[in-house]
Here is the input.
Amino acid sequence: MDDYGKFYYCKKCGDLLEVKLDGKSFPKDLHSTRGVWKYFGLIPIWSEENIVSLDEGGTILLECKHLARIFGLGSLFVKFEGQNPTGSFKDRGMTVGVSKAKEVGFKRVICASTGNTSASLAAYSARANLECTVLIPKGKIALGKIAQAIAYGAEIIQVEGNFDDCLKMAREISEQSHEILLLNSLNPFRIEGQKTAAFEISEQLGFVPDDVILPVGNGGNISSLWKGFNEISLIYDSKTNMLPRMSGIQAEGAAPIARAFHLGKKTIEQVHDPHTEASAINIGSPVSSSKALGAIYDSGGDADYVSDKEIFAAQRLLASKEGLFVEPASAAPIAYLAKISKKDSRNDRYEQMREGAVVCIATGNGLKDPDAIMKWNDLSVSGKMKVVSADAKSLEKILFVQKN
Ligand code: F0G
Here is the structure.
């Protein structure tokens, strides 16, 4: 921790700080029955009294047999993080980040956001009675997410710039001020909450999956799950620690991590004017890029990008074949599977994935961004929804006659 009780950077090497757990001190009896706080013993909060919770985590891991068949995979699962209290995986991190803010006595918190972080921080701040400010790029956030932040009572500031500008401003302000704590994913306590998704997946399956595929923006979540999988042996006392391959998928117009990986590099080149309709991952300068690339290289995973068209097709496929409606960014891993399973582009990665259990992380709920699904299906323009006069005869015509 630095002089102000903050904890982002190492004073020696300047890199982001990370919590290292001391295996000897873990209580092996797990705390609550479900969700993030089931793993209290692996989360560095000092006292249970400081926990600020909305009963987050404990989301379903759904086997997707239809999609597995379409992609030619042995087994495919989707972890639906849209079931969290504010509709995204951010709640896992915020319950821990806000609990720690309370524990060390902060009264004010801030974040930059493409939408979900702001919704989540606003909710947990409301519950903890903290003053919350969120910086969002003007005109680049899904409506549902702004509505959430408004409802939870956050101070919302729209920035005439992109997410990277917002984060730079939030970092500068929180570094200057003694009073305000930054709760973006460079806060290591966020990572400590988000890692619990790895514990849950392994418990739900009964084993560690072979592949985990995530949408990547800042790179915080893929780093979190990688940390979680590496800590699993601490829970189960297992001697051999099986680890999955971690793959990170970005949108084509905002893909610095995937591009660095394609070039075999460990550092990124910033994308100065990122653009994707999957607004949650519209990020050109990911703050956790080196950790994310580390997870991908160390695990033998992959990084790739998909076009917006592929993302929206995957969003519809997941909803229409499996009944899971996720936000556009969350469909990026499905779009990647669709891409690599095409007959003419099958490669070694695909062949590897066919053999084992593949888990895609669906990071957010589709209800957050209804505009996107309407726009990509052209619903408002050509009116693909049929209109019928209010009698059964007219309905019969549509249901039966027109089909023949
Ligand atoms: N999926 C969704 C739905 C997200 O909201 C985000 C990030 C990501 C994936 C990428 O996660 O940044 O940890 O690699 N959203 C942040 C926000 C940036 O402000 O809500 P990451």
Notes: Residues 220-236 form the longest helix (17 residues).
